[in-house]
Structures are given as structure tokens and as C-alpha cells.
TrEMBL record:
Record-linked InterPro entries: ARM-like, ARM-type_fold
Coiled coil: none
Protein name (database record): ARM repeat superfamily protein
Amino acid sequence: LGFIWATVVLLGGFAITLDKTDFWFITIILLIEGTRIFSRSHELEWQHQATWSITDAGINSFRAIRSSSHFIIKAVKAIFQPIDDAVRKQSRHSREITESKHLTSRRKWDRRKIPTRTWTSSDVPLLPYAQWVFLSRNISKLLYWLQLASATACVVLSLMKLIKHNYGEVAKGDTDKRNRRSALNIFYALALAEAALFLLEKAYWEWKVIYCKLLDEVNKECELGPSGRISIRRFFYDAYSRCVNGSIFDGLKMDMVSFAMDLLASNSPDEQLIGVHILRKFAVNERYSEDTLQKIGITLWVMERLVEMLNWKDPQEEEVRESAAEILSKLASKKQNSLRVAGIPGVMESISSLLNNKRSSGGAADEICGKNIVCDHENYGFWTFNHLGLLILKKLARDHDNCGRIGNNRGLLPKIIDFTHAGERLLKDETVSQSQILTVKRSLQVVKMLASTTGTTGKQLRREISEVVFTISNIRDILRHGEKHPMLQKLGIEILTSLALEEDATERIGGTGGVLKELFNIFFKQGMPENQNHVRIAAGEALAMLAMESKSNCHRILKLKVTEKLVSALADRLLRINSARIVRNLCTYSGADCFTQLRGVTTAAPTVLKAIMSEENKLQEVMVGLAAQVFKFMTSQESSIMFERAGIQEAELARALVQTLQKHQYPPIKIPRMRRFVIELAIWMMRDKETNIQIFKDLGMEKELECVSDTTSELESFDIFSGSVGMSRHSTTIHSLVETAMKLLDDK
């Protein structure tokens, strides 16, 4: 407004009548104001320059000599060009020099410890021999003080004229004296008001930003840590610049996450580091994590950029790579984001690049350090990347489709299994690093999740896992030496249980020396704390699975001479369910040639009968199934003796069986084999003694069998399940069992 008033009203309307002093005062004030406006707009650009780079420790700033001559030529040319163009060229060239320094530092990488990035304000030299003068930070300060000086000068000059009112003598015949004085008063008042408002703004700025430490408060609230002040300062000047140069709404629309995402797209390594550092801090912060991950998750190019960063193997980019991996690990924890991450082309290859086992890391380390860079392998964070890589895979593996993608990636599965290796020293040494134990644990968790996958994908994964020659032997070592790490033992056992769903894998497990023996050692181990009983239960489940439909494994178990212990365990409330399952499978699948070795199981009959009469649900189901097999090893007289020892009459057992069928008129989901086992035991009883046929008739067995025939389903046709998919179909259908029982009832 003051500029328009001066040029249009004063210089345009009163140019001839203006006093020489007023003319030069107006001109000087306009020049001062123009200088201040220019300084203010370009101060922001140089403030950007001051926060543009995060300097690397040990970088030699004089490495920019080769490009300095080009800059001098440009600077000389800029003298004859508008000041605005010159400043912009200086800013652009300073960035080129910084990139040159960055490349030079890579060539100078030595054998000593890798220097870490130091978060400081940037000092970007524009000339190698005039560093202090041309530092971007000092230039911004110069422009800042130039603004203050120009505003102060404007206030002084305006006050001088407003106080003295010496606007010159009026020429003869000048009738516009009053208008000229008023116009000059208005101009000087406008100049004074504008300059005073500017000084007031600067005073408020100093009080708020410097004295009250606004940026530090924001950094503290965002919890970005000591290194975050540079990021906050850069964000602040970006937002302020948009408000000044554009609309205030441009600045208000900015947020830290969007700001950081924009920096990821930069070609500057330092800006990339600032961006990924901000996203990492926000992603792990409970207050901001959900919104941050949601925003990243719906921005495909950001996720692709983060995945790309996983492949950056230059040691100088270690921090960027680690931050990107941590962000992706948080991103993968949400199912929807997990699917998006897994859908990015090449993501599995990128995650695989994070995994490098130190036992065979020679080639991997060379790959990371590069052929032209000499680096100390010991200082590179291999184990950190291993943890993050396995953590990402663990979270991705929660989804069925992602498990298939992991299995389809060539070479990834053997890498994961390689981390399950834990020797005796690692497992028994109390001083061993917990990070190494954590690596083994995470790798076992990933393998477990892959092995327990359902459907065709799970079948393929179990086959591939069991075909890796180290899988079973690594788990055996954990079972043998992992007494101090029960969680690792349980994970290993659960992997074996899942693999046992496949016939080939079952044979491989049983054929690996010591696996069955170690499982029984854990299963029968006494004196374990109560909080570790889950390991014994898991061992029993694995043994039951390995004995199912595997004649060779049954023979291997019998050679271990554990039959008596299994019979004794039927009385142990913790072990009896799995003991009953193991004994039943031994009786069912060992074959006729093992009859003599299994004769000892007949001593379990009284315990089994009592459990059938007194228990319910799962325990009753397995005991009924075991009874149907155990009594096959007895004569009629021997079975009568067992009933007497148990204090139970056969009629009482028959009534309990009929009542069980009445209770479960439809196949129960939790105990799908109950009706099958009841009918099997009833058939044995009717074949054992003809008197039992009449007992069942009197109890209404025929009616219950007809109900079973009308309500049977595929659920009762399988012994085990993988999700909702049936595995290990029974050789005899339930319809066939019903027909056999009905025929026995009709023959009487």
C-alpha cells in the first residue's frame, strides 16, 4: 500500500512540487523496504538450505574443489543478473557440492569402525576458500540482520519526517500545499506502521521461538528424541515458507507424516534419512502409531519406497535401511496393511536380503559391503536386520495367502530354517546374548506358522520344510539341549506336530535319530515347574501324531521300551489324554507281529474303564477309543477279570455307552470321534459275550444306531484335521460300523 501511494500519488501527482529532501527520503524508504522484502523471502530459502543436510562425521569439506571453479564463473555472471537469480543459483549449486561430498566420503571408507551419522545443523560451503562467509547458515543470519536494519532505518527516517514536518517551501502559486503535506504524512505513517509491525513480529518471533523454545517443545511432544530438532526445524520453515509465499492454508494443511513421506521421494540421502526417521518415530509411538500406519498403508508409493530401501546394502545407508525395516514390521502388524505389503512386487526378495546368518555370512557380508567399499563386517548390524526380517515375516505369515508367497520365494525358506540352528553352547550357556536366543525363537515361530497353514498351500509348505535337511536335526538339538529354554522346545515340538500331518514328513521325523527319544524324555520328565507343563503336553501331542498310521514309527517307539511308562501315565491327569492316544495308535497301527510286545497294555484296562464311567468330553472320548483296542488283546475270561478289578459290570458299561449316543445325537465338533469309538467298543462287547447283545437290545441300542446312521457326516470320517480340512481318513466308515453292530443285534 505504501509503495502504491508513493509511486501513484506522490511521485505521480506531486513529483514536480516535491522538495528534493522528500524525494530522496521516499526513494530511500522504498529501496529499504524492497531490500527487506527481498531479504525476508530469501531468508526462508537459506533457512531451508541450513536444514537441508544431515552431515556425516568425518566428511572432508575441501573435497568440493573440483567443482568450485564452476561456481566462481556462475557467481561472476550472477553479478550482472538480478539478485534473485543469483541467490537461487547459489542454493542449487550448494546442493550439488553436498552430493559430491557424499560420494567422496564413500570412496574414502576405511577399515576402521564405521562412522555413525551425526545430527547437526548443516554447514554447506559454497566456496572452499571462503567457507565462513558463504555458509548457508551465515547467509541466512546476514539476511535476518539486514531485515532488522532496514526496518529500523525505515522507522527512524519516517519518524524524522513526521516529527519535523519539514516538507520544503511552497512555490509561488502552489495551491496543493495542504494535499501534498497530507499525502506525505500518510506515506510516512504507512512506512512507520509497516516497519513497526515487522519489528513487533520479529520480537514476538524471538520470544516464542528462541526464548520459549517452541521447536524444542514440539520436538518433546512428538517424542522424536535429540535428533528430532533438525526435523522439526525443517518442517517449521517449510510450513512457514508456504504460509508466506502462498496461502496460509497451504501451511495449515501440512503435517509431519506427509512431510516425512515427501522427503522419502527425495534424491538426497540426508533428506531420505530425515523422512524415514520421522516415520519410524511416529510408527512406534503409541499416540501416533495408528494414524501414521493408516496413512502409510493407503499410500502405495511410500510402501514401495520403504520396500526398496530394504535392498540398500551400503554401510552408510544402514540407518535408513534399519528404519525402513522397522516401519514395515509395524505396518505388517495390521492385517489389511499386511496384505498390501505382501502384494508389492519383489517384497519377499527384499525381506530375504535382510537375512544373513553369521555362520555363512562371508558372501553375504561381501555383498553388503560391495566390491569397491572396504568395510568391517563386525560393525554392520547383521543381527539387527535378522531380527527385523524375521519379525516382518512372522507378521506377514499370519495370513494364509502370505504364507504361500513366502514359500514360493526361492531360497527364503532355507534361510529361515538356517536360523533355527542352536548348538549346545548357545542353549546351555547362561551368558549368551539374548538377541541370539530371540533370533532362534522368531525363526521357529515363522516356521511353525508356515507348517500349520491349512489347505493345499499348507500341504506344499510342509513338504518343502521337511525336505530341508537341517529342519528336523535343528529341532532335535533344541529338544536335547534346550532345558533352559522351554519356549524354544515347545515351538520345535509344535513344528514336528504340524509336519506329521504329511506321511513323508512323519517318516523323516521318525527316521532322524534321537527325535522320538527326546520327545519321550520331555513327556515323562518329572519335577518340571507347573508353568512348563505345556511343553510336556505338546510333546505328547507330537508323539501321538507321529504314531498315527505309521507302522515304522510305532516299531521305533516299541523299541524304546516305554509301554509301561505310557500305561502308568494313564493315571496322571496331566498326561493321560495324550498317553491314551499314543497307546491306542500303537495298538491300532503296530501290526499283528507286535502282539506280544503290546500285551502289557492290558493292565491299563481298569483305569480305562473307570475313566469311561466317570469322565466326559475329550478324556472320555480317548478312553473309549483306547478300550476298544486294548480289549482286543484279551480273552473273554481276562476281560471279565479286568471288569471285576475296576468294580464295574459290563451292563453298566453298556448303559453308559447307550447314554453317550443319546447325549450326542449329532456329530460333536469338539469330540468328532466319540460316536465312532462308542460303536467300536459296543461291537467288541457283543462279540466277546453273547449276553451283552441282549443287554444292548434292552437298552434301545438299535434306535440309537439308526439315529447315528441318519445324522452321520464327513466330520466323523477323519481322525485329524487341518483347519476345517479333514486329514487321515478312517479306513472303516461309520456306516460300515453301524451295519456291523446292527447285524450283531439282529443275529440274536
